[in-house]
Write a structure and sequence with these properties.
Radius of gyration of chain B: 16 Å
Number of helices of chain B: 3
Structural class of chain A: alpha+beta
CATH class of the largest domain in chain A: Alpha Beta
CATH superfamily of the largest domain in chain A: Histidine kinase-like ATPase, C-terminal domain
CATH architecture of the largest domain in chain A: 2-Layer Sandwich
Strand content of chain A: 15-25%
Number of domains of chain A: 5
Oligomer: heterodimer
CATH superfamily of chain B: CheA-289, Domain 4
Helix content of chain B: 10-25%
Number of domains of chain B: 1
Largest sheet of chain A: 6 strands, mixed
CATH class of chain B: Mainly Beta
Helix content of chain A: 40-55%
Distance between the termini of chain A: 60 Å
Number of helices of chain A: 24
Strand order of the largest sheet of chain A: 14-18-19-17-16-15
Mean pLDDT of chain A: 72
Radius of gyration of chain A: 35 Å
Number of strands of chain A: 22
Number of strands of chain B: 11
Low-confidence stretches of chain A: 130-144, 217-276, 281-313, 516-528, 702-709
Low-confidence stretches of chain B: 1-18
Strand order of the largest sheet of chain B: 8-1-2-11-10-9
Strand content of chain B: 35-45%
CATH architecture of chain B: Beta Barrel
Largest interface: A-B, 31 and 25 residues
Amino acid sequence: MTIDMSQFFQVFFDEAEEGLAEMEKLLLAVNVSDPDDEDLNAVFRAAHSIKGGSATFGLTDLTEVTHVLESLLDRIRQGQMALTSQHVDAFLAAKDILKSMLDGHRHGATVDLDAVADVRMLLQSLSEGASKKVATPQALVGPGGVSRYRIELPNLGEREIEALQQELGLLGTIEKADAEEGRCVFILDTAKGADSIHEICSFLVNADDLKISQAVAARSKEEEQGYGFFAPFVPQEATDEERGYGFFAPFVPANATDRERGYGFFEPFVPQGDLERAKQAEAAAHADSDEPPALAVSEGGAEKKAKGEKPAVHESSSIRVGVEKVDQLINLVGELVITQAMIEQRTGSLDPMLHEHLLNSVSQLTRNTRDLQESVMSIRMMPMDYVFSRFPRMVRDLAAKLNKRVEFVTHGAATELDKGLIERIVDPLTHLVRNSIDHGIEIPETRLAAGKTDYGTLSLSAEHQGGNIIIEVTDDGGGLNRERILAKAKQQGMGVSDNLSDGDVWQLIFEPGFSTAEQVTDVSGRGVGMDVVKRNILAMGGAVDIRSSKGFGTTISISLPLTLAILDGMSIRIGHEIYILPLGYVVESLQPATQDVKEISGQGKVIKVRGEYLPLLPLYQIFNIESTFTDPSQGLVVILESDGKKAALFVDDLIGQQQIVVKNLESNYRKVAGISGATILGDGGVALIIDVAALLRSTRQHSDESVFS
Amino acid sequence: MSDNMSKTISGFGEKADSTGNEFLAFTLGKEEYGIDILKVQEIRGYEAVTRIANSPDFIKGVVNLRGIIVPIVDMRIKFQLGEPTYDQFTVVIILNISGRVVGMVVDSVSDVITLSPEQIKPAPEMGTTFDSDYLIGLGTLDERMLILVDIDKLMSSADMGLIEKLAA
């Protein structure tokens, strides 16, 4: 018997992907100077389960990378190392690599093996920390802070040392310290990392002969410097002795052997290669075995460790279910709601005195059914956070690449949208966000010159508005340039006039191929692929709108219909037929006075509502129904609004307002003009949902048949 | 189960064999028709439909069939056979045609019959209201003659307008 492994693979891939996303989210949110242990544990758990899973499936390359990642994470969460921003960067890089490897296994995408090796090296070196000979000391201080490095060079010529001193002097203040046995030692105070020093020195010195170690710039930083435990390997200056003492202080009571103490103090005076290496190995062994007690006395260490061992407070609490199962559930609940409505209707005619118990039970059933329906419907709904959460990373990376400073804010991340739509909105949004950073937000210098803050603000927002969800990408950058766009349009032979409204001008950037021509700075870039964005959104039944003000920024607003399985509808009656109007379009309803209904040259009627003339749409004529009333002043009109156009729909009566389950007509029939779908009423009958947007579009034309063309 | 059924039914015809096709026989006016039983999902009584505005008159409208919206076609109107009356005896055959569900109103459903290939004769070029494209042939069973309809082809045809034609 063979087991179909592919299904398990799928589960593993899904889980791994989820784990990576979770990891990234946590890493981006982590506070480097004071990381939350729970977060670190969560990151560790994610890495660990990916490791376990990949080992099970024999994906050794994944296992290897996750293993290195995991051991580094473990040291940090155990408090053996302090988290630094360098670690975070390395973790993020590792996450990317893991993702690409995962894709490699999953879709056969190509994996950059060099990058994989690089990341492994990076993680490994970080994890081994200072015990490696040419270890890269971690940047101990936050950006902008100054660290002190001790650079030990091999025997060099006088001129070379001078040149090097000058070069390094550019990074910060440099001091030449006592040379020992022909070696030369610099003390450098710089805001740059050890990498820069490496870079400069590597012109003259073989990297293996170079020793860069970090001395401490300020005492107050000590607590943060977890790797201080490895400090015994750092040769201490005589002048640093006092500081060194502070360093080792925690060790003293713990490893109260004279040998160790002596080692710590006197090591600087025996900096010989072989001897040193031997001692390092020895010390490493000691450090490993002695670290926990050492930690116990170091500030905060005990507390951290205790926390680290606490059982995980919150485990991931979601299960994976196929969409078709959910849809089936939704359908069944829809059925239940209808059945319940039928029972309610039938029992409504019973004598409440005689059937009190039955009626009570029915009303309880009603409540329970509604609750059930609501919860089931919410399964398919996902918060916009699902989309928004992937942007902070992108913004961070892109801003860094473009040397821009961008603050990213989101609003309404809890706004819920159907899963199907959520997935389709990701690509267009990504594109818009990229565009905003690339072409909208200016570089800090330009911003300062324009009297703005040096960091740009990019905001993503989502909110419900009527029957739509509005998603907006706003930047406070330079805005669109009307003249440039017009000039470009003319150059491309589009028939545009200079009198176009701003709104129309902005729409030009959605023209296919509008910007594929040469780069015209901030304008042309905005158009790359904008036609695709627009097409995607139109395909979802949405619309895109641009608001831009030169010098103040641009807002791109996407409005999507909540084409969900459920919507608020108003049921109306014409003759014996019942139709549903999506409530989002309904403004008001009223009974017009006879004198407010006017005829326009036999073509149609208009109705005057508060000084505004609205076209009258007689639904009985459009749908060819025998209606009770043909005179609007006897029936009712419902004022509808869509896309800024208003019209009055003439109906016989309003029945009520209810939540309806939208059913597709096209699954078994065909598209019907003027109808957007169907629903099932409480009595089991079918009511059609009127396509209000199409109906209003047709008001421009004279003839009613145009709806059906 | 279908084996059992075919055995019971094969009692009707002398030459029927187990390899024969089963057909659901129904009447429209005075004519008797047969369709492949495998296309039939269920048989129901006629219930109130919701009219679809501006659709051809043979499309009666849509009904709710356990949560799905199903269009109902009245074959008597489509082929001008018999009087379209709707009472408790009116029958709707619910067809499942490559995943799409369609209801078909007929005058009555008689039985399920098994026809061997030799009982199915090619349809003449004239004579029925159906376009011969939609015919499988004529089935003979004792004194009865069934017009065998390729219901798949018929319901998918542009003639019926049940399925959106793909945009050219």
